Amino acid sequence: MSYLLLLLATLAWSFVGVLVKTAATMVDSAIISFARFFFGVICLVIYLFIRDGKVQIRLGMKWIWIGAAGKAVNYVFENIALKIGYSYGNILVQPVQTVVLLLAASWLFKERIAPRGWAAAALCVLGVLVVGWNGTPVDELAQGSGLTTLLFTFAGIGAAVHVLSQRMLLKTMDNGNMNLSVFLVSTILVAAPVPVYSHGFIGPVSVWAWAALILLGVITGLSFFWFAEAIKKVPFMIVALVGNSMVFFSVLWAYLFFRDPITIYIIGGTLIFVAGFLLLNFPMRRKSATEQAKAQA
């Protein structure tokens, strides 16, 4: 069951770009951001009520609001970038998030980062730069992929802040009610500017667009819970392999559904930052065993 949950979470995340592009044919990015949280909260409430018979919402903790603000930033910038760019563009969020988390671990939590951690961060940055460049002349970057890369960078920073909040909140809250509290506050944050800045329905109303909005909410509400439950029992090496395969699925869906151009730069940059993920996540078993034997001796 844990492997199934891991696969479901990975596949769900890989479809985000395609679903946002589909929903964007009917509504603007502000509505998409709101819908992702709103329907996510509904899914979580239903799930938690079925599981526990009650829900616990806690709004008085600062990390709830910090995490909600980070996730709101993540979705707002990600949705804008997906609307104006290609549907695989959000593969850049994860490497940016990884680099920010490494920097936060070093600077904020004073944790020692091994050399391979910094090497992994360098590969992530290089991969993002290659994908963002995509062979485009420098004078055209600001009008095309350079702008979307910047937006995805902001989205990745917001995602990292959300992960940091989870690290702090899981000390005192369970995963389900923590996500419910954070996503509820995020819903309020992204809903506030909608009456002023949103254009609402900008295209024809369709069943596919509505289905995309609802599925985005389901992914928001349940995928993080699925992933958290999966990693409790699945070996971490498998988590790293399956979880990072999301970027390849995202590129595949982008080509199959929208025929987004997949260039050698996209493939190369993706391989580079995936190598960074694997370098960071794979345990150094032989080295650890050797060190342990020396210590015992």
Automatic annotation (TrEMBL):
Compartments (UniProt record): Endomembrane system
Membrane topology: Multi-pass membrane protein
SUPFAM superfamilies per UniProt: Multidrug resistance efflux transporter EmrE (SSF103481)
Segments crossing the lipid bilayer: 30-50, 62-82, 88-109, 116-135, 141-164, 176-196, 208-227, 234-256, 262-282
UniProt keyword NAD present: no
Every EamA domain range: 2-131, 150-281
Main subcellular location of this protein, as a coarse class: membrane
InterPro entries in alphabetical order: AA-Vitamin_Transporters, EamA_dom, EmrE-like
Keywords: Membrane, Transmembrane, Transmembrane helix
Superkingdom per UniProt: Bacteria
GO terms for cellular component: membrane
Family: Belongs to the EamA transporter family.
Protein's UniProt name: EamA-like transporter family protein
Organism from which the protein derives: Paenibacillus cellulosilyticus
High-level lineage: Bacteria, Bacillati, Bacillota, Bacilli, Bacillales
